[in-house]
Amino acid sequence: MIVVIDREGVEHHLEASEGSSVMEVIRDAGLPVEAICGGQCVCTTCHVYVDDKWKDKLAPMQDMEQVLVEDSGSYQDNSRLSCQIDYHESMNGLKVTLAPEY
Ligand code: FES
């Protein structure tokens, strides 16, 4: 399960299965994440902010993700591209907030 705060501040608890990316979980729940590139780490439309409690527990960013997210115009030090976060059970309760629309 992941917790997603949408752009209106509403909290959603979404079932997540191992092997899915966080972007896929958010998109498949019908929340407004465009994910134009389909998870190829190209578009930045899956940008989220990771709750402080979680940000150091995730696998570190690869170089391409880092460059893209820093160029997104709404970068924070807890920014991630949700397509680059693969969900697994140890992440149960992961909390993210959708970044402003690109
Ligand atoms: S879906 Fe395009 S960068 Fe994540």
| Ligand catalogue | FE2/S2 (inorganic) cluster
Helix-strand string: EEHEHHEE
Considering the protein shown, what is the CATH homologous superfamily?
Beta-grasp domain
Shape: globular
Structure keywords:
102 residues; Ubiquitin-like (UB roll); binds FE2/S2 (inorganic) cluster; alpha+beta; 5-stranded mixed sheet
Account of the 3D structure:
By secondary structure, the chain is α+β, with helices and mostly antiparallel strands. It has one domain: Beta-grasp domain (Ubiquitin-like (UB roll), Roll), CATH 3.10.20.30. Helices cover 19% and strands 20% of the residues. It contains three helices and five strands; from the N terminus they run E-E-H-E-H-H-E-E. The chain has a five-stranded mixed sheet. It is globular. The model has no long low-confidence stretch (mean pLDDT 96). The structure holds FE2/S2 (inorganic) cluster.
Task: Please give the structural blueprint.
Layout: E1 2-5, E2 11-14, H1 22-28, E3 47-50, H2 52-55, H3 63-70, E4 79-81, E5 94-98
Parallel strand pairs: 1-5
Antiparallel strand pairs: 1-2, 3-4, 3-5
Bound molecules: FE2/S2 (inorganic) cluster (FES).
FE2/S2 (inorganic) cluster (FES) is lined by residues 23, 35-37, 39, 41-46, 81, 83.
